[in-house]
Amino acid sequence: MKKSLLSAVLVCAVTLSAAPNVALADNYDQQIQEKDQKISELQGKQSGVQSQIDELAAEIATVSAQVKDLEAKQEQLNQDTMQLQDKIATLKVRIAKREALIEEQARDAQVKGQATNYVNAVLEAESLSDVVGRVQAMNTMVQANKTLMEQQKEDKQAVEAKVKENEQKVAELVENQKELETQKNSIANKQADLNVLKANYAAEQATAEQDKAKLKEQQEAAKAEQARILKEQQEAEQARQAEEKRQAEEAAKAQKAFEESQAKAAAQQATESASATEESVATPTQPVVEAPVDTNSTPDTNQNNSTPAPTPTPVATPSTGNKVNHTGSGNMYSPGQCTWYVKSVAPWAGTYWGNGCQWGASAAADGFQVDGSPAAGSIVVFAQGQSVGTWNADGAYGHVAYVQSYDAGSNTITITQGGMGFSTPMGPNTATLSASGLTYIHP
Predict the structure, then answer these.
(1) Number of H helices, E strands in the chain
(2) How wide is the angle at C-alpha 418 spanned by C-alphas 415 and 423, nearest 5°?
(3) Quick check: 360 and 368 in contact, CB under 8 A?
(4) What is the domain count for the chain?
(5) Helix/strand/coil for 191
(6) pLDDT of residue 304
(7) pLDDT for the residue 305
(8) 10 and 83 together in one domain
């Protein structure tokens, strides 16, 4: 329909422009009649063209509504991934602390030579009832250690389940982003078609050669814009396919690294469990009572109606031992978040360290040095509501950034960062601010 309409416009344009400037007196009536007939034909087409214009306008409105729905879904998916990161990081820190307690118990049992404590406890009993009481106490301690190991196993299984759930959310987020781009491209295409259709219609209605020439220029400009949009879409599609391939490769690396770490942890756990079982028969140990962790709490996201928390003074956090090597583990944070940007420029950062405010504790649990000393190449952590120069970090999730350089003379750091609040969420966004009162993670 559009091609036939364009052909009709071109035929009319050629016919009108081909008419002679000077006509003989005896054929004026015939020329006027021919032009009147063409004007009548154009007026007859007016309702059909307007119908097409209205139809395209309605389609654009429908697709625009779909884009809004997809953008809302994208925001919800971002929130879901941040909450999953929060829970994963909390579990990993708890597992690391419990591992340290288990290792400390094992060292105490070997160093202090308590292999005969059970026997001595029975031999030193003053009566049969005292023997029964001591045996029950030792049984309680053994059961406490068993419960501790079971809790450790359950938490590790929970981490594995939430990691898989997070991977599914990230994959869904990527698919939603692709659909969002498709719908936006559809709007651009329909808008370009509408512009061409309007330009064609206006060209058909032109009665003067000067007006017609001007409208023809507009028509060509609309076609050129249509060609430009098509070219941009092709380039964007190529870039999307390349990015999709890269993300798939990173996800495969992350999955492989995660499976290897799980296998290694399982083997180590099996060895430690066997050793702990043998030692628990001969060595009484004090049960470890662990403070409960509320994993069902929901962060207050209404940061605009609350007063930002005071800036905490960073305290050096001792590491738990050897650093965990996260390089090559892939980036499973939500694209466009501050955590995604920092992981992309600092591959040594953890894949599941949670939201920005949790990175300090998570890094310490993985053996990294965490303190208040600024240094180029480190990661700076901002608590909930803490000042980031000219703005404040999110009241629920905090913020992280990469330290590009440190000026000791002015005690300032220059950082690069990402996040949804910036004009370029994927980064880099550069800022210089005071280095005091902040927490730093060193590679």
Answers:
(1) 7, 6
(2) 110
(3) no
(4) 2
(5) helix
(6) 40
(7) 39
(8) yes
